[in-house]
Write a structure and sequence with these properties.
Blueprint (H helix, E strand, L loop, with lengths): L1 H26 L4 H23 L4 H24 L4 H24 L5
């Protein structure tokens, strides 16, 4: 379960970072600060993924912080680009993040020698 959670976090972080870089360089839909914040939170999640996998103390907390930051920026993006926040995409993103955290937490409890 730790491997699945870590790979999910890695993929989500890379996807978020890539989307922010594309918007920053080419599309220019969002403010520069929002794109830079998404890049920072995406890279934090990429950094946290291997820490979660090896059971490093604080790794899951770092991942949760990055996921919360990305969720907040997704809400900002939805309000900024669409003028309203659609519930289903935001709930789906939040449930996916919660699933990754739960997989990492339960996997960490089951792994021998990891807490």
């Amino acid at each position: 379960m730790l491997t699945v959670a870590s790979l999910g976090m890695l993929g989500y972080g890379l996807w978020s970072t890539g989307a922010a870089v594309v918007d920053l360089v080419a599309a220019r839909h969002l403010d520069v600060w929002a794109d830079l914040a998404a890049i920072v939170f995406g890279l934090l999640l990429v950094l946290a993924a291997p820490l979660v996998r090896v059971g490093m103390p604080g790794g899951l907390a770092l991942a949760i912080g990055a996921l919360l930051g990305l969720q907040a920026l997704a809400l900002h993006e939805a309000a900024h680009l669409h003028g309203a926040i659609a519930g289903i995409p935001q709930l789906t993103r939040g449930v996916f993040a919660l699933l990754l955290v739960l997989l990492a937490h339960v996997g960490g409890k089951q792994a021998p020698g990891m807490s």
